[in-house]
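Our preliminary data section would be incomplete without showing what the modeling component actually yields. Below, a chain of 416 amino acids is followed by its predicted structure, encoded as tokens that our downstream tools consume directly.
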Amino acid sequence: MIELSDIERVRPVVERISVRTPIFNSRILTESLGSLVVFKAENVQRTGSFKIRGAAAKLAALGDRARAGVVVASAGNHAQAVAFAAREAGVPCEVYMPVDASITKAEATIGYGAEVHLGGTSLHDCLEHAVAVAAQTGKVLVHPYDDEAIISGQGTLGLELVEDVPDLVTVVVPLGGGGLTAGVALAVKSLRPEVHVIAVQAANYAAWPESLAVHEPLEVQGTPTLADGIAVRRPGDLTLPLVERYVDEVVTVGEDSIADAMVLLLERGKLVVEGAGAVGVAAMLAGHVNRPVRNGSTVIVLSGGNVDTGLLGRAIRRHETNVGRRLVLFARIPDRPGSLARLLTVIGEAGGNLVTVEHLRDGFELHVRETAVHVVLETRNPHHAREVLDVARHAGFEVQVVGHAVGLGPDGPAAA
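Predicted structure:
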């Protein structure tokens, strides 16, 4: 069993590579919770996540044994961290990542000098392959979470929390394989046993609740999630007992909450945070974090910021649609010159800003003298979106909302 002394012992090694990440207050979440909420911004950590802490500790622990090279399985953050630490140590690094791994993470890992192989549909698949490669080649496997040095390295984040937040009462931390959660919870609880620790999983990869219930690691298949960094099928053999001992609650969050959290952090906090890093905020938005019984600070750990811009853009567009700032319409119009121009004129005069327009002639129940258009608009808010919709209908156009928008509701077109 890992102890506080193990975390304290690796701290000097970790600090030679990592940076001490800042603490930011969150006004909007503080107002929502009724108690001070702050972020521990590991998204601005070296290599973009907390993983550099464990990687630094592990490479130091290996010493000369790493000279033959290290092999890694990772969805991306662990890969980048080990690649960076290996380059600093002059050690070859071979990485196995899922085929749908973040392009940003894969490219960054290559940039740190690692040899990257894409294959398998999950971290579990990649880990099995990495274990086989290590056995065949004599390279050292650097496990992403189920390793004493890795857990101890991640635990240094907990030491910083205790030092930087004197009135700490609650810690909310992402939970995947359990390395970060176990290390942070161990450090915090050893120094401040009264602090409440909440671990957050993505509901699409929720292996922990059942595993904790039976006191042994159980495997789940999982389904795609925005929180790919914590999409782990099975808790670790080392991490499970540590989480059992030091974590007070394990909660799960859905994909919509994760997407909303990512956009909230970007829009209101000016922080780029990946899905796995945003699950703590998602838990608060979903009502899983209660106001603490004692006065003090609730810390949400933003564990990483390595997100593809394309994915972030899709999350932003979804959010704008849901809150009524992006309106998607399906309209039937007469198939004669000037009809589309008249519709767009009406929309423009109502203040709607045209983003895209597309003719749709096939796949819908249309009269032979009728065509359809798919229109995407920018609007100011739900009230303005309703005004645009009402003006278009008052002008005689059969207009329907596509998808979901606050106060408007989905009433999309029927397919033929």
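The chain has a mean pLDDT of 91. The first strand starts at residue 23 and ends at 25. Preliminary results of this kind motivate Aim 1 of the renewal.
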